[in-house]
Amino acid sequence: MLTRALVLKIASLPPVRHLITRGRPFRKLVDRFVAGETLQDAIRVAQQLQSRGMKVSIDYLGESVRDRQMAEAVVGEYLRVLPMLAQAGLDTQVSVKLTQLGLDIETDFCRNNLERIVQCAQGAGGFVRIDMESSQYTQRTLDIFYILHDRYPNLGIVIQAYLYRSEEDIERLIGCKASVRLCKGAYAEPASIAYPKRSQVNAAYRRLMQKLLLYGNAPALATHDESIIRDAIAFAQDNNISPQRFEFEMLYGIRRDLQEKLVAQGYQMRVYVPYGEAWYPYFTRRLAERPANLLFFLRHVLR
Ligand SMILES: Cc1cc2nc3c(=O)[nH]c(=O)nc-3n(C[C@H](O)[C@H](O)[C@H](O)COP(=O)(O)OP(=O)(O)OC[C@H]3O[C@@H](n4cnc5c(N)ncnc54)[C@H](O)[C@@H]3O)c2cc1C
Description:
The chain is an alpha/beta fold. It has a single domain, classed as TIM Barrel (Alpha-Beta Barrel). It contains 13 helices and eight strands.
């Protein structure tokens, strides 16, 4: 967890960001986690995944937008993405970040932007999942979610197991039949609000996962952790929970072997497919998650 905080801190330094985003040698590494820079890249990847029995959630990369026009451009992009997914015969699900839709500018502006995307998804028979960002946004993200979820059941949310508050949040979300994607959490958070140890996060994940499997509405278990996935499968079997009542989700480019294996075993598998030019923060979170990624990256730099 300490490594994660350090990597994210170093990555946020302007000279480091400049070096990585301008350096062509890093492109290959970025391509491992990002489908490409254009919507066509994302659709191509989605078609490949669908042909292998997987569903997708498309994410137009970006966050921390502080300019109204830019936030509106993001809405425009999602209004283009949703009908194109439907036309291409693909599963019509997108993932959005509220700071990309103007949460740092004004709450109502952000909520209206989200509502336009959710309405468009509804028209296309699609679904919108709100990603969860760092803890300074958790409450505001949930507030916006609850207001819109009352009117739009095709809106879902993400909960991070590392936050102490998540147990209560999940109970309320189960109570209003919201679809929850459960992840461990990707940001550097202080021990005052989040479990500092990996073992504690894993234990919290298992607890919340069991609750969602028993009582949740179409829960999405977003993890590449094979031992947690094994436990989820055993728990579902022991409690007669059909594989159709939940899904596993993984990130594009991570544990493709496990993705294929789960599909072959008859489980629903959704892959989060990010695309766009604003890949830097997403990429650094993926580096920070795993020391091996970082070593690979440093070897590249030294060469
Ligand atoms: C579909 C999806 C949506 C997500 N949405 C959010 C969100 O909205 N908010 C948020 O905070 N986080 C989000 N995350 C990220 C999540 O919080 C974790 O940071 C990330 O999934 C790594 O945790 P893990 O559960 O895979 O377990 P870990 O214990 O971190 O990893 C288990 C194993 O998975 C593999 N692995 C994991 N990460 C990597 C990597 N980066 N590179 C290579 N191999 C890796 C390794 O084999 C590792 O041993 C999402 C994750 C997924 C899958």
